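To whoever is on call:

I kicked off a structure prediction for a single chain this morning and the downstream step that reads the tokens threw a length-mismatch warning. I double-checked the sequence; it's 795 residues and nothing unusual in it as far as I can see. Pasting both halves so you can look.
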Amino acid sequence: MGLKRNLAKILSSALAVTITFSTLGSVPVTAYAQENAVAKANIELNGQYKTNLSGLTSDSVGEWKVTDEGLHSNAVDKGDSFVYSETKGTNFVYSTDVTFKNTNSGAAALVFRAQTNNKDCYVVNLDANSKKCKFWRWGHNKEDQRLEEDQLIDEKTITTTESNKYTLKVVAIDSWISYYVNDELVASTGDYTLQEANKGQKTVYKDGSLGLLNWNGDMVFQNTYYAEINDDFTPLLEDINITSSTGTVEKKTQFVPTEPITIQYVDNDANTVNVEVIKKSQSAVIEITDENDIKYSDGKNIPVKEGKNYITITSRITASNGLEAVLTYRVNVHRRQKKEVYYNELYRDQYHYSVKDGWGNDPNGMVYYKGKYHFFYQFYDDIIWGPMHWAHATSTDMIHWEEKPIALYPDANGAMFSGCIVIDEKNTSGFFDGIQGGGLVALITADGNGQRIKLAYSTDEGDTWTKVDEIAADWTDDPLKDAAFRDPKVFRWENKWFMVIAGGPLRIYSSDNLKEWKCESTYADLHTECPDLYPIMADDGTLKWVLSRGGRYYKVGDFQEVDGNWKFVAGDGYNVSNSDKDSGIMNFGADSYAAMTYYIKDFGTAANPTLPEEIVEVNWMNTWDGKGEQFCNQVAQKSGMKFNGTYNLNLKLGLKKDKDGKYVLTQTPIKAYEDLRDTANKIEKNNVTVNENSDLLKDFKDDCYEIVSKFKPQAGTKKVGFKVRTSDIESTDIVYDIDNENLSIDRSKSGIIINDKVFAEKNNQNVQRNDDGSIDLHIYVDKASVEVFTKDYTV
């Protein structure tokens, strides 16, 4: 398609025998307005062009004329030439045949859900020469009327026909839009099996006018029909259930009729499954096929291998005018490994949470609600990163977890990137009318063509979610106009909701209802991912605010109104800049990223703070940084594991003043870990002298343990510490260098070296000894990880 976009206003008129021209009325003189000051013409319809569209109006770019073949359009070397109709649709199937008279140039397109001014619409096309398809959302920026073209798919090549005739068809139901060419599914919003790359959009156009478009081509349109989709005529499904006569099916995932993909886990003994389809319309015809295109007329005894198995369910229904509406659903039936495999894997941590199968990264939506901790996180059913979902687990102690079905799937707005969950107990959102105590509201980054914040809410403690159609905040409306607009973390303070958001530069937003957000302040030079902002009562009784920069660095200061806007104001020793030296180090280990705290309650007001007893955070135990390579994607591949996603210890946060009067963050493992101690078999050494030849621990052997230690070096001592996970050739070394006052973790000999550029490098931080000259090391060793705390948990 050309760059020129003549999306002009539909002219309302009856069918005319003659062609009447008119020009657009007075418009501001902009490049766009001048481009659209073109004549419009009504198109005379007769039986030679078969259509049920009414009031067709063309622009004067190129020629549109009804002939004995149909609606002939010639716009060779003219750019975009449009036809609009008075016909409007909300949920519908819309189709046309197009025959290319010239197969060397031009493209034919369906235009639909065009808004009042026809500037904002969807367009699907087919190129006559390349036989490639595109799918756009066109819109205009509210501020400067600049055209925004969001490509919703990568170009797809379809099979050439000898007749040069093709049928273009869209099925649009709410936010789900499917595009078929000659019955081949080209695009389906949210269906990442067609394309993994994120191609999202802001708030979906829900209705509008129908039209046609010819770009630089010579073609004939024929059989242009639409049919409204309603309760009687619909290909939508009520539900899809997976059962098995050979094994166990896990708890059912939530089914959303207008989303194309769900994941259903089954145990290893379920080597075949049955697919039960519940139709909205009994007239719909269902076809079920497996990955090998084998059809199952009764949906029974479908073989499934270990791992993922995509089963396709096609629903077809035919309207009275012969138009067929088709929807394509997919269920990923993931057959588990044998039960004895899980949590016995060589590199499976035991007291750290990890994803059971597949990939997990950023913690999301962490909330304590009605006696349970809810832990959501970024998920994809593979061992490397892919289109993001939200997985879900619950716990009463943050150590023992119950797996829940996948909570949120990619959709028309994009993949489900990181976000948070709050308790809307006062029903500020209006989502919980009549429900005592409100419910949960998720704020999710939808990723694709930039990033935006969408909402979902739950009335059943997070078991099921209702997504909200309207986007709450979009990067194009942000003052910084930076497409990195993600990872919202929301809290309540002074009877308002506040949101820190970044991915690139930090911003702070406010809202009264969680649905409409106002930008309070921006920090163009302070870049971070996964920001968090929370108040802590310091050890001196002062309330201070901590700005977490994704668990890597932090700043301490105040959150207050400055000149009518809420801002984070850095305290002594910190600075609101991107400089790491002006931040505290939150974690010097490479594998700790995307920290998030649990939402517990409203923080109250400055006059009456209502802080929770504990503010607890957790990090993803991995990192993207690979100095040119994506380290995290290599972990499972190099280690041979079928899971890739483990999380650091849950840490209680605090603030204390150091000897220079600067507030520093403390991160202390929660008390619940002490309940895991095997005190009956502990090894305890007090007031012993050790040297480089000491073998005090020579008889100890284990792979999950805790070390609590304090060293008081004598004169001449150079280094103290521990070698853990040792063999004749392997060890992980935790070393405090006394002369350099530096604590390091060296894993260059820690078995499989995932990445020479990251994994084999020492992780270290300068740490002054305690006032009495001692060094304390509190170490947690798990089957595949080491975490070290020192300096009264400030490091």
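Update from on-call: the warning came from a stale cache, not from the record. Cleared it. Sanity check on the structure: The first helix runs from residue 31 to 36.
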